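Reply to dn_fold:

You asked what the input looked like. This is it:
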Amino acid sequence: MSSNKGFIKENLAVGFMLFALFLGAGNIIFPPLLGQQAGEHFAISIISFLITGVGLPLIAIIAVAKNGGDLQILSNRVHPVFGIIFTSIVYLSIGPFFAIPRTGAVSYNIGVTPFLTDGQMDSWIPLFITTLIFFGLTLYLAFNPTKLVDRIGKVLTPILFIVIVVLAAKAFITPMGEFGEAQGNYVTNAFSESFIQGYLTMDVLGALVFGIVIVQALQARGVFEVKKQVKVSIFSGIVAALGLSFVYVSLAYIGATSTEAIGYSEDGGQIIAASAKVLYGEFGSIVLSAVIILACLTTSVGLLSANASFFARIFPKLSYQAYLIVFTVFSFAISNVGLAKLISISIPVLMMIYPIAIVLMIVALFAGSFGHARIIYILPLIVATIVGFNDGLKTAGITLEPLENMLSMLPLHEQTIGWLIPSIIATVIGIIISLVTKKK
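and this is what came back:
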């Protein structure tokens, strides 16, 4: 019993660190929107959202830990070229393509727009000025890596968590209203729509990268045995998963009960900002704005540094500092399209990437039992890539009729998870081929 207590106490800090890594802009803005849109279908929607937003990231952490803690090592199981390409895509997705610009856009939507007039919100100037200052600070802090950002992050994550707890407590004790009616796809396809919304948090992609952070933290404490690293990773993942689950359910509930008080919105950031004002007045808006801006800033600095470090290592023609500048300027430009537009652009790409990421990490969990035979990875990944590519194009409004007609016969195709069953079948075929080949 005492050994279990010692294990928990010793590794609780790693779990809190992982929770802090996950808790970013996307984790704050999507649950309130889901809650508002799901309305009366809140229960089934939040369960589905937790599968992709919490369950799959936990599996990703375990899969990466079992494969050395490095996404590129895991991806190389398929092929070294795939390893470079897929790892680069993941880093760019949680970096300058989507996640870093989103930190600037969310800072504006939650931290600035509550204090603007209708006329000012219609202008591009406030967003431009906000993101210019935001990414200027991001670049400065990334250029001068000190323990300041790390310390601020360690302080801000608990504060942000406390702010969410306080908002949720008031929302549960004195709700702003009843659950509204389901909207859009949530009327008839609440489960599948919420499953896809979980993609937008990008937590699975983040988990594939965060694995190396956990392993490095454990190695610094003298833990080099893979089995122990996996055990601690599972424990840490569960701690982070419990924290994220609380945050998601609380924010989704706030969104679901906010309709009567603030009306419908297509922007989760504005929903939570307006709800904070209803629940705690002007003071609530100010506190939430300050914490969100600083939290987004530390997230932005961390993601920018991680991307610059990775690409400087893989493609050393440019220096770390040069990558910092390029990625910052690119992120600043993308953030100025606005949060709603940025999300709509990201959805088709994530529809393509997520099936590949999910299949890769699930296969990696058991492929070691078959000597990590490449055929076990390649066959299901081919299926996931084809179906995911088609789903991404459809989401972007592009339909390839011959491909769509063929894939429409797949089970769960209408729910946009048509890759699932064929990938399982392809994995089984891959296992059979590997066993037959091994016998010969």
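The chain has a mean pLDDT of 88.
Hope that clears it up.
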